[in-house]
Amino acid sequence: MSELLALVGLNAHYGDFQALYGLDMSVSEGEVVAIIGANGAGKTTLMRSISGLLQNASEAVNYRGQPIGALRADQVAGFGIALVPEGRQLFPSLSVEENLMIGGKLGRSGPWSLKKVYDLFPILLERRNQASTSLSGGQQQMVAIGRALMANPELILFDEVSLGLAPVIIRQIYDALPGIVGDGMTAMIVEQDIKKALSVSSRVYCLQEGRVSLEGATNDITHDQITAAYFGLAS
Amino acid sequence: MSGWVVTRSTRASRAAMVIGLFAMVVLAAAPWWAGRADLRLMGEIYLYLSLACLWNLMAGYAGLVSVGQQAYVGFGGYMLFALTVFGGFHPVTAIVLGGVLAALVSVPVAALIFRLRGAYFAIGTWVIAEVFRLSFAQIQALGGGSGSSLPVAIVKEIGAKKAAREAMSYWLALGAALIVMLSVYLFLRSRRGLALTAIRDSETAAAGLGIDIWRTKLEVYVVASAFTAVIGGLIFLQKLRISPDAAFSVNDWTAFVIFIVVIGGIGTLEGPIIGTLLFFALREVLADFGTIYLMVLGVVAIVVMLKAPRGVWGLIRDRYDLEFFPLSYRVRNKD
Amino acid sequence: MIEWTGAIVQGILLGGLYALFAAGLSLIFGVMRLVNIAHGDLIILAAYMGLTTTVLLDVHPFLALLIVVPVMAGLGYVLQRGILNRTLGDDILPPLLVTFGLSVIIQNVLLETYTADPRKLAGGAIETASVDLGGITLGVLPLLTFGIAVAVIAVLQFIFYRTSLGRGFRAVSDNQDIAQLMGLNKAHVFGVAMALALAVVAIAGILLGMRTSFDPAIGGGRLIFGFEAVIIGGLGNLWGTLVGGVILGVAQTIGAKIDPGFQILAGHIAFLIVLAIRPNGLFPRVEH
Fold it and tell me: What is the CATH number of the domain that holds A11?
């Protein structure tokens, strides 16, 4: 497995506030990596930094060996990196189908098309001409995931996809995940629900106050280790 | 920690006050030492300085970016003519009354154009100025579209001799500029002024603090408009002739004023002063070039807005930490 | 009676021209929340470009469109990417003051180049041609202007709501960050929007120049007419700008019928009445 994404000493700032401190991370092709951590640990900042919404030092983020840390989000998207943003963030002026189509704006070739997205989430086919704002939270999340898939990304980033959704909807979405990443797509999943995160991932990073506090294969890590890393207790 | 005090004044601001008082005395005596052309130019400088301070109060502090304050310059000018010719008032009384009337007119105007947000507010103010211009052009008694001159008898009320008249309009301009600057300064130091700064920094936060944004903006608009009308009266007391196009000129009374404030430093009290001096210096140098001069002003304003949005004064202040009109509080060690 | 009907019909046709002034303003406000104070001066700039083209190449103003439209569009793209994009943000002052400075520069460049003398584009026979409709005589040029306005708005509407470019416009307008994630470079999208707006400005300028004489100082007035049409029609609604333009045009021609000096004032008053009664305009955009 070759290395797809490498973070090297990533520092991220919002103005004077530093959110990430010298993060090192590595994601290989085909992996599903979970990012866990308490509120304010820097998970969303990490997603914003990789996707280019937050620009950093160029060499801090490397994709297939190329430095991309200083690129804008639209340039990063061109590399085949897609983000399902926290809080869904659909375009309210666009219909469901238009939201999906704009996800495919870059025209990268690959397995995903409108038809495949509708196969995955049949409810969206029914609602395709509706305003995206008229959908339920779970359906909106499906659109947000579909929108990212339409880009046919190599690396897909999920930021808190289960936030604010009913348990039954969360289960539906997580049931769909293997179908998404099964084709060899690489994924990073930010998740509050540790059990869910571990159930779909092969490796896990735990963040605490902007630093990596634990890293390892999902199967090797114990519950106690996670608790310690999560809350910052000495292990 | 008892060695620390919170203060507004600084050594620079106290020095500025002493120098300022001395300068006032020298300037007030100008009719005895300056030539007629210089006196006229200085009078014009004071009036532009006043317009700049007022526009800066609206745009730089209250977020009311207007491109239509020529409405009140022209209104004040026309009130001078109307109230002296038809009302029999002394010109100075007429000018003050013009300010009062402008305040009354500005309230319903504000009720209408405050419905427009941001940049659309700006164009809305321009529409109002056009309505004023076209309306005054319809009044035949005031000369209609071609305008009229102030009758000699009324001009004589200011002073029997030409020299006396010119000295008088000079002092009126100087006095008006002082009153405007002092009013703006005291207003910004008051509770209302602090509210204004809060609004500028964040409307939502200010509303959360219980500041009535609409009311505070209305007060600024009304007061600025009234003062602008007074300055308009003084401008046309100097010119002695008025026409709709001159009275409601967007170039003369708004474009120049905006350039002055932007170049000097918007949202600062010192900015309009520096801007006015730079504006007139540029004008003296480039006066012969006419349209080129205006192009240069436009380019300078754009460059300043893009590269140094706090203007020349902002650059000076950043470098030397100076403040001649102490508005901000400083923490200083007493010892 | 027939005279008044005539005035109203003339006003409706005039409204087509005002809708063209308004469409560009509405478009760029919709996409990037930018209000361009120099919009009117750009219309006049386009009219002068038309003048130079017709004189130099000895062609009809309509043929000049083939040159003026792309040149203005290119200018729009460069202007947006070179200057205006840097002014966009939370603060409304920079775009306002920069476009205000631009307005003064354009006016004075035109004054320096073409003097203050009023000029006109020579449209030839079409200027005086007219058709008779049930006792009302209508000029062919005003009719054509109105038809072009309807067509331009239909095309803009199509681009906005039926094409990939339009989806990009709406997406960037909704949420700039997330639109960037879709691979949309907002600086480029804004440049394209301004190019499109100035292409419409070019058409408006040529039609204005054939209809009436123009000089470098009248840009501000055209900005105001366009702005009034936008506000009367309702922000963010392209067809609304046509209705707004028509209402403004009719108010002006009726005002002129009462008293020639009352024409422009009547338009402003109609605008202020709408602002007093329906501050959001007659047809504000409904989010779907």
Answer: 3.40.50.300
| Residues in chain C within 8 Å Cβ distance of B123 | 35, 37, 223-224, 227
Confidence at residue C286, expressed as pLDDT on a 0 to 100 scale: 56
| pLDDT bracket for residue B209 (50, 70, 90) | low
Q: Which residue of C has its CA nearest to A132?
A: C288
* Of residues B216 and A5, more confidently modeled: A5
Query: Which value, to the nearest 10 degrees, does the dihedral of the CA atoms of residues B174, B176, B182, B187 take?
Result: -160
Domain locations in chain C as residue ranges: 2-214
Do the Cβ atoms of C265 and B131 come within 8 Å? yes
CB contact A133 to C (< 8 Å): yes
Q: Which fold has domain B4-329?
A: ABC transporter involved in vitamin B12 uptake, BtuC (1.10.3470)
DSSP assignment string, C162-231: HSHHHHHHHHHHH-HHHHHHTT--HHHHHHHHHHHHHHHHHHHHHHHHHHS-B-GGGHHHHHHHHHHHHH
CA distance B247 to chain C (A): 16
Quickly state the pLDDT bin for B117 (edges 50, 70, 90).
Answer: confident
What tokens does A104 get? 């495919």
Instruction: Tell me the residue range of the domain where A63 lies.
Output: 3-231
* Collapsed DSSP state (helix, strand, coil) of residue A189: strand
Predicted confidence band of residue B284 (pLDDT cuts 50, 70, 90)? confident
How many independent structural domains does chain A possess?
A: 1
CB contact under 8 A, B115 and C264: no
Q: B298 and C101 in contact (C-beta within 8 Å)? A: yes
Say if residue B155 is exposed, middle or buried (CB neighbours under 10 Å; 0-12, 13-18, 19+): middle
Distance CA C241, CA C17 (A): 11
Q: What is the predicted pLDDT for the residue at A235?
A: 45
Residues of B in contact with C35 (CB under 8 A): 118-120, 122-123
Dist. CA A32–CA A198, nearest whole Å? 10
* Closest in B294, B295, B301 to C97, CB measured: B301
The residue count for chain C: 288
The reply to whether residue B306 touches residue C275, judged by beta carbons under 8 angstroms, is no
Axis crossing angle, helix C186-211 with helix C61-82, rounded to the nearest 10: 150
Which residue(s) pair with A158 in the sheet? A84, A189
Chain B CB contacts of C261 below 8 Å: 134, 137-138, 145
CA dist., res. C252 & res. C13, Å (int): 12
Select from C173, C178, C184 the Cβ nearest to the Cβ of A89.
C178
Q: Do chains B and A touch (3 or more CB pairs under 8 A)?
A: no
C47 three-state secondary structure: helix
Q: What is the pLDDT confidence band of residue C288, given thresholds at 50, 70 and 90? A: very low
Alpha-carbon gap, residue C127 to C181, rounded angstroms? 51
pLDDT tens digits for range A143-175: 999 999 999 999 999 999 888 888 888 888 888
Domain boundaries, chain B: 4-329
Q: What ipTM score was computed for the predicted complex, to two decimals?
A: 0.91
Nearest to C174 among A51, A83, A93 (CB): A93
**Which chains have 3+ CB pairs within 8 A of A?**
C
The secondary structure of residue A27, as a DSSP letter, is E
Q: Least CA distance to B125: which residue of chain C?
A: C224
What is the rounded distance in angstroms from the CA atom of residue A121 to the CA atom of residue A161? Answer: 15
Say yes or no for a CB contact (<8 Å) between A74 and C178.
Answer: no
pLDDT digits (tens, 9 = 90+) for A91-149: 999 999 999 999 998 989 999 999 999 999 999 999 999 999 999 999 999 999 999 99
- Determine whether the interchain pair C100/B67 forms a contact, defined as Cβ–Cβ distance below 8 Å: yes
Chains in contact with chain C (at least 3 beta-carbon pairs closer than 8 A): A, B
